[in-house]
Amino acid sequence: MRISTTQIYDIANVGMADAQRAIVKTESQISSGKRVVNPADDPVASTVILQVKDFLARGEQYVKNIDIAENLLELEEVALNGVVSLMQRMRELSVQAGNTAVLTKSDYLAIAAEVDSRLEELLNLANTRSAGGEYIFAGYQGSVEPFVADGGGGYRYVGDEGSISIKVSNIAKIQVSDSGKNIFENIPSPVNTVRTSVNPANQSSPPISISVGQVVDQLAFDDFYPEDMVITFNAQGTVVPPTTNYTITERSSGRVIVQNQLYQPGEDIEVNGVSFRIGGVPYPGTPATPGTVQWGSDAAQNFATDETGDSLTLRVGGITETLTIGSNVTNNADLVTELTTGSNAALLANLGIAVDNSVVPPQFSVASGLNIEVDPVGGSSPNILAALGINSGSVSTNGVPGTPGDTAFIESSNTQGLLTTIARFSDALKQVNDDDNASKDLVADVVSATLESLDLSEININSIQSEIGARLNTLESTRDLQLDSELLNREVLADLEDLDYAEAATRLSLQSFILQATQQSFVRVSGLSLFSIL
Amino acid sequence: MSILGNAISGLQASQTALRTAGHNISNANTEGYSRQRVDYVARTPQSAGVGYLGSGVLVSSVERIVSEYLIGQLRTDINNFEELNTFNDQIGNIDKLLADSGTGLAEGLQTFFASLQSGADDPSSTPARQLIIAQSESLTARFNLLYGRMESINNGIASESRVIISEINSLARSIGELNLTIQQQLALGQGAQPNDLLDQRDEALKRLSELVTIQVIEQDAGDVNVMIGSGQPLVVGQAVSQFTLTNGNEIVLSNAIGSVDVTDAISGGQLGGLVRFREELLDPAFNELGRVALVMSEVFNDIQQQGLDLDGDFGTPFFTDINDAVVMTSRVTGAGTNQPPNDRSIYVEIADTGSLTIDDYTLRLIPNTQNYIVTRNADGSEVTQGILSGAYPAEIAFEGLVVHLESGSFQGGDEFLIQPTRRGAVDIESLIERPEDIAFALPIRTQIGDGNIGAGRISAGEILSIVDQQGNVLPAFSAPGQLSPPVVVIFTSPTTYDVLDNSDPGKPVDLVPPLRNQSFIPNQDNTLFSTDPGVTIVTGTGSSMGLPPGRISNLQAAGGSAVPNGYPVEQLTFTTTNPTTGATTTQSLTTTFNSSAGNTASLLSNLDGVSANAFTEAVITDININNLTSPVQIRLSGQDLIGYSTGQVASDVPDPSVDEAAFNTYLAERINENQVLRSQGIYATSTSDPITGNPELRILASTGIDLDIRIEGVAGDNISVHDGVNPNVRLTAAGGGQEALVTVGGRIDLTLADNVVLTTAPSVSQFFGDSSAADFAQSAFMGYQAVVSGQPSVDDRFHIQFNDNASVDNRNALRFVDLETEQVVEQGTLTLSESYGQLVERVGTESNLSQINTEAAELLLRETQATRDAISAVNLDEEAANLVRFEQVYNANARVIAISRDTFDTLLNSF
Asked: What residue of A is the nearest CA neighbor of B871?
């Protein structure tokens, strides 16, 4: 085959360029330590590498999360251990206080002093803060101090029921907090108790407050249990002389328990065996404007005909009553008497209608503020309507029902908070008088209730502690799993991505050899020219 | 003389040969030069009697040594190689760009999600939140940077194309000129080939092939015609067309006849490589990157806006709104050929990021019709088509997009390029500036009532959406800093509950629409609300329900059958519209005369998309029994309520004339203890009227059966019955073994699924009210959800309220974190990073393939080049040898002259 001079040079050029390119690639692999420098080098591997790296980065974060979760749970555990040992001391004190026969008032005061200081300690534990300054037992409201004294010897939980979780693997989230309500408040009570609260929708400013409340007459309260009570403040004008007053009703039925009681801020209120205090200035609500229909309002009154046996239908709210006129009426006085005596009186009472004689002519009046409809569906006798001077279907329009004032709730409960239990224990200890056997009996009762409460609290806290233990175990095993799979994935990554140095070095020396050989042969061949001899 | 003549012809021939060899040597390095060879012929001999005597040599021609086949092959191979090589050069840039940890997205996403994890671990920490902001800014910067780099690659392609095109134009011109010269030379040379000009033209054609695929057609007159693409003429004789590149990256070929867009016809060569790279790789890469940005913006914004920030406000968008007005307009470009006036207002909304593809589309309004068609640009396939009404605004929806033809002169023949994802990566911007503004908390929290006695639990609650289907904020979240309204779940029996507006916990009231008498299954998870965003409730407020006005009591012998409830025959038609096709299906039910609400409800519940809930409420008030002795009796659905013992009223029955409330309590207990009544879902409570305080006995039947209430007794004993809404009916006993009775019917509340509409005949239904009224079916989508489980007791309460002060709530943060592994792209098949990984993989594979192909094409090219060179290129050694040879011939001829002179001299000297 014929060879042209250009070819000799071209072949050398191409050969050297190829060899140099191969060397540069091997060099870049060696200097980076990576087999796959660009995705084009091995597209499949590079996609897997991307995924594995993603997985590893996430795994690293999960291990960090596990550390944080462990810290949080351990902090909680430390606090709860503190609570448990404190409860141990409290139990000792309770047992000691049970010796009512030998202990004196001063002994009780000494015990009470220790109980108070332990209570303070317990309050601090329940209001434990994390390193970041967040209350750990407040649910979601880390910046709100969850347990506060209500000034009446009780403690109220103002946090919520939220709990925080942390993601520790692709699929698992671990709960790292428990709400104070679950730990310290939801403790079964040996006896029925109450929980009090004011309506957040109250309009008074500053809002009225209610003490935690206490069952002072267990028998009376047990009769009432499990019903709840609502304390509603009424418009001042509902009593004479006008003053702030309240009504207590049973929540489920609306039945009135006590009505229009005069209100003294901070005064002990006892109802159904429950004692509590309300403070502040309540919003009284607005009084009802009675709905009235005055006789003769639609037409002149006409007593000309005999109304005996006539029927008159009236409706107030959903209630309709039909009154029967017993005799002929000839003037308003007759009419008033006819409507307000006998069975008609009872029917008017059903409707809440009073016949108001203070105006002339008299009027129907509904104090609750509902409106009156006269002869709503027709069928009343025309004579009696003529006597009243009111058309069929006539409705009063001026009635405005009153609006209730502030409300507060006393809800029956079968749980009692640990702090409140201990506060009440302390309170009972301080009430002891040497010569008052009743006070010692009370202490004995309270001691046994306290001991039972402490036991139940401990059961509750133990169950939460064991939950924390279980969570810590899960964290540990998740961490192990994470580390194992990290190891595995690092190997996969190394296999895919990392360079085999021995192979690369061998390759490099082969490639350098090729380059050298190409260069040398070019020098040889290019030196051969006929012109050099001519 | 002939000796001399012969020698001179030999001398001349050798000189020509030497000159040609010299020409070959001097052009040894000239691109495209083909070596030339001198051909000789012996001159015509002269007749000399003895025969013909040779008269020397004649140079017949100077030829170039070429293989036309190889020239063509070389053009093909170089064209192929240049295309692949250009493609390969370009892809190398983007391949590195996407995969590099410094510029690629993978690491940006990783660190962003890692910062979110740290935030979720410590939601109240400002530094952790600050880090998220920094990372989200750096992530969006990466998107923008990648877009910018790709855009500059795109611009580079455009300017490179421009250079190539001007080179094509100048090559085409020179080919045209060469065509002319060659024609002239051929004519002048009387058939002698202008070798060097031909070489030059071949070289120009080869250069042209490097740039773009051409077809070369030789003409008889020696000129060549050059076609490109599918036969568009570039050079015809001397006539040359002109290539231009428009701003829209379209390649236009223009000549005297007109202009034609040849972008799609361009293939091969450097220009073809650039076009192919842009279409097959760069555009999809832009779109894939844009899609990741769009999906990420949308899912993050959704969650962010459903959460509460550290200040207790609803979150403001994390990233730029994907349906910002300017952005929506930028997704569509009208073709330059659209007829004026150019007043069309058209924009593209992304309705569902999960359905987004990475395709571009073309919307065409078909001339002279109202039809439109949308095609996918990548393969020209039809995506959707339909008919426009001609009235604007109009909407066209497909593949997660809604094209809004807002207003203007849309005309047949209009064409619009739709690029939904193209600019996603440049439009994304991180909007959160204050660390407090990241919404880590959910807006709701749940609480178990303080006074609950039962063992019921409620889940922490979750947010489904804060907007309705039209994108308006739901009422629940409409006011800042509160849930509107807070709700309370109150159990009315161990298996039923009401969900009420708890704005005033002292007096919970019905929601709008009411959610009452819901059934509860103990020890199971009971979701409180519908998750269907289009759910509506039709409330059973029809005029014939319950105990309607005008009903009076009947009097009949005791033990007789019940009075019918009087419920009418009506036709109820439920129309379901398929949201994608618009097709409707209807289901009808004709109610049975006097059928109980419970029975009608269970028939209704059998229909698709309809769930009916029936319940019956009756209230007994104003009990006037003056003589509590036999035969006095109050009966509820055939069950005696007043206890008898040995034929007389039992002694434990409280006297209603003394204490009506106690009597009611007694009746309630009797009802609740009665197995027959309980099996009918009947539950009673003794209550009192909230306004008058009068005692009441409330009876609730959760099954919606008719409540048959009767009284027997001494004439005049009476009770009053109402249904909680309508006026009361008084039942007055008449004695003589007769009883007064009335039947209270139930009410039916209907829950209709999305796109289900109820029409009634007559239109004012006695079951449901006026079905043509605007508020007939009211939306009942709350936007949030909670689950109640366990065993609640009657009157147990569960609250759902606003989550204020929730500084350590990380529930929403965990939703952000979960997005890392959630498959939110491509119909829920890819995560964000997988979607990006897919792009990297695709580019990597293409890049790998193109390297291999380029190498193969290069080998082929070298092979052909070598073969061509073997035939046509100059070998200097060969020429050296030729020089020696021709010199010898020259010398020999010179010697012949010398001999001829010697001969002549000898002859002269002899004289």
From this structure: A2
